[in-house]
Amino acid sequence: MADSSLLNHETLGTDSNPAIIIIHGLFGDKDNLKSLARELSENYYCILPDARNHGESFHSDSMTYPDMAEDIIKLADSLNLKQFYLVGHSMGGKIAMETCIKAPERIQAAIFADISPAAYDGTHDSILDALSNLDIDQVKSRGDADKQLAETISEKGIRQFLLKNLKKTDDGYQWRLNLKALRENYQQISAAVSKGQYDGPVLFIKGGSSNYLTEKHQQDVAARFSNASVKVIEGAGHWLHAEKPRIFNRLVIEFIAQ
C-alpha cells in the first residue's frame, strides 16, 4: 500500500546516476521544471515531486518550511538517496534552502531560482483571492474558468499556469490545489527560512527584471550560506525558467557539473 504521506513524484534518468531533486514553486506542480529535468536526465537521476497541497500530493493543514523540508528528506529516504543535489524555484527554492539547513551532510550542492531566504510581503494575495472567488460550480470548461479569472488576472500566461491546477471530474471540475490550506498558511509560505548554516556550494539565479532577490537580501543569504554565488539572467522576471529556459538550464547544468 502506497504511503499517503509521501510526496507524489516522477523520476527521469537512471537511478545509478547522481540524484537531483527539483522542486516547483507556489501554485505549481512537478511538470514546471520538467524541461530542465529532461536535459539533466542523461547524466543524472532527476526526481520531480509535487509539494504538499499541490498537484497529486497529499493535503495537509501545515505548510511550514521545516515540515516541507522533512517531506523532501522522507522522499529521498524512500528512494535510498544518501546524498543528492537540490534545485528549487521560488517557494521550492525556500524548501530547498530549509532542506540544506536541516540535512547539510546529505546535500552535495543546491540551486535557488529567484528567491532569497528572507520573509516577503503578501505578493500572491490577489491570486489567492481570484482562485478562491472562482465559482467552480459554473465552470463547464477551462474556457469558462479562464473567463472568470480574466476579470482579476489580466496576464494570460499566469491564468494558463494557474488553470493547470483544475482537474476534470465526473461532476465537472475541481482544484488539485488545497486552496484552503494555502490561504490559511500563506503567512508561513511567505516567512523566512530557518536560521542555520550550510557550507556547501550554492547558486542563486536571479531574474534581472525581478525584485525577489536584491541587494537588501544579501545579509539573509550570507547568514545561512557561506559558499554562495549569484548569476543574473537579464530580461527575465520571476518565471525565469519558463522565460529563458535555455540560459537557465545551462546555468544549472554548468554549476552542478563543477
Compact description:
The protein has 258 residues and is α/β, with parallel strands linked by helices. The chain has helices at 34-40, 65-78, 91-102, 125-133, 142-150, 156-163, 179-184, 186-189, 218-224, 240-243, 245-257; strands at 9-12, 19-23, 45-49, 84-89, 107-113, 166-169, 172-175, 202-207, 228-233. A hairpin with a 2-residue loop joins strand 6 (166-169) and strand 7.
From the alpha-carbon coordinates, what is the Rg to the nearest angstrom? 18 Å
The appropriate CATH architecture of the largest domain is: 3-Layer(aba) Sandwich
The description of the largest β-sheet is:
7 strands, mixed
Which superfamily, in CATH terms, is the homologous superfamily of the largest domain? Alpha/Beta hydrolase fold, catalytic domain
Pick out the low-confidence regions. Answer: none
- How much of the residues is beta strand, in percent? 15-25%
| Mean of residue pLDDT values | 94
Name the shape in a single word.
globular
Number of extended strands:
9
The CATH topology of the largest domain is Rossmann fold
Which terms summarize this structure?
two-stranded antiparallel sheet, seven-stranded mixed sheet, 258 residues, 9 strands, alpha/beta, globular, 11 helices, Rossmann fold
